[in-house]
Amino acid sequence: MAENKTVLVIGGGFSGLTAAVETTEAGYDVVIIEKNPYLGGRVAQLNKYFWKLCPPTCGLEIQFKRIKNSSNITFYTLAEVEDIKGEEGNFDVTVKVKPRYVNDRCVGCDACAQACPSYRESEFDFGMNKTKAAYLPFDQAFPFQYVIDDASCAKDCMKACFNACKYSAIDLDMKPKTVKLNVGAVVMATGWNPYDATKIDNLGFGKVRNVITNMMMERLAAPNGPTKGKILRPSDGKEVKNIAFVQCAGSRDENHLPYCSYICCLASLKQTLYVREQYPDSKAQIFYIDLRTPGLYEHRFLWKVKDDPNVILTKGKVAGVTEDPVTKDVIVDVEDVYGGNKIKVAFDMVVLATGMVPATQEMKISKDISYTPDGFVDMTTAKKGIYAVGTLKSPVDVARSAQDATGVVIKSIQSLGRR
Ligand SMILES: Cc1cc2nc3c(=O)[nH]c(=O)nc-3n(C[C@H](O)[C@H](O)[C@H](O)COP(=O)(O)OP(=O)(O)OC[C@H]3O[C@@H](n4cnc5c(N)ncnc54)[C@H](O)[C@@H]3O)c2cc1C
């Protein structure tokens, strides 16, 4: 039998993109299936990412350029795998692709959004913002192409977009379609979702307006976010000059996520810098069980924050979070372990360091995969020819996701010729 030269990559985040470009640069064909209307995954939502603390485009742009320059990568956005049948070297895959209603003549001029009368909540900004139903997912989205969210359109309102477009880029006749593929290996890279903070009763999320999650904080600090990068609290737009970070919000807790999400301490240290740099007279307090900063460079990051006299690190589990009904400040109740007493402190805003949950549940190939007790993919029992990468196997940062994806490429290439 001839070698099947195609690898399927499910998920177009940093792990999936790395797997895709490394595979194609080794001479093989790749098809990427991404459920969002854009590639880049969660990294696209970050304000800056360590260790260089550069904006997400500094890493993603290189990946997008490698994809653009490769004639061997095909990608489908708004797409999900419905079914995979077969064996290593010969998988038949069924993919469902939702209509975008915008074709590749789109030049990103925004005329459709300006004409669009309907709004939708931005999931990219975690509901802190609205976009028109015809929208560009974010300013440097790849593909740089608008999308129409038909579920948010009022009756017949798509015609307004259609009439406004000078480039014949709006195609209202687009329908959901099914794509059939035959591939030799499958790389699963569907990444992670933030833990649902409304499940943590005592930490106030969803009830206290000025309690947000760490991913919302990334969007608040981002220049392309809902406040254009000004860190303002949700209730009244006040500048956030007195902020608390609550570590292990739901993590290392058998009622929620029993495991450590590895990234949360580092993310809060990074976000402390966002606030301290934006408001030099601001104060930050981090409440932690243990401050975990594993790795080579991570400690230097901790030292930088520790040396700042306007940052207090307090060891103690937060017992409760409530709202001052008059000021809308957030009151944090905590047992200060080293102080040996219970303290109550008021803040402008509180950030919950919620953990990473593997995005495995919605995958349609779950029958061929085993999971660890925490829900991550267990590669020791995976079916031959199917590989998982990055945050689907454990909570990891971008560098480790990319390293893992590069390693998995070898495994998937080996699968192409075997049957
Ligand atoms: C608050 C916070 C801050 C962080 N800051 C940093 C930082 O500064 N530096 C750093 O290195 N790391 C940081 N991280 C971690 C970083 O976000 C991850 O390492 C990175 O997102 C991993 O990439 P991934 O491709 O594995 O997953 P993801 O980014 O989740 O990408 C997965 C992709 O798969 C797609 N997908 C999901 N399900 C399906 C499906 N069924 N079908 C098709 N597609 C699907 C998703 O839409 C997404 O595009 C942070 C994490 C948090 C929580």
Radius of gyration: 23 Å
β-strand percent reads 25-35%
Q: Give the C-level CATH assignment of the largest domain.
A: Alpha Beta
> What is the number of beta strands?
24
Assign the CATH architecture of the largest domain: 3-Layer(bba) Sandwich
Helix content: 10-25%
User: How is the CATH topology of the largest domain named?
Assistant: FAD/NAD(P)-binding domain
Number of helices: 8
Q: Number of domains in the coordinates?
A: 3
Give a short account of the largest sheet. Answer: 5 strands, parallel
Bound molecules: flavin-adenine dinucleotide
Q: Gap between N and C termini, in Å?
A: 8 Å
- Poorly predicted runs are none
Describe this structure in words.
The radius of gyration is 23 Å and the shape is globular. The chain has helices at 14-25, 57-68, 111-115, 158-164, 214-221, 264-278, 298-306, 398-416, and strands at 6-10, 29-33, 73-76, 79-87, 90-97, 119-121, 130-132, 134-135, 147-148, 177-183, 185-188, 192-194, 211-213, 242-249, 283-288, 311-315, 318-323, 330-336, 341-347, 349-354, 356-358, 370-371, 377-378, 386-388. The strands form 8 sheets. The protein has a 5-stranded parallel β-sheet, covered by helices on one side. With 419 residues, the chain is α/β, with parallel strands linked by helices. The chain folds into 3 domains: 6-98 and 176-191 and 359-416, FAD/NAD(P)-binding domain (3-Layer(bba) Sandwich), CATH 3.50.50.60; 111-164, no CATH class; 196-355, FAD/NAD(P)-binding domain, CATH 3.50.50. It starts with 5 loop residues before the first strand and ends with a helix. Flavin-adenine dinucleotide is lined by residues 10-16, 33-36, 41-43, 46, 49-50, 80, 189-192, 214-215, 218, 263, 267, 270, 356, 359, 362-363, 390-391, 396-399, 401.
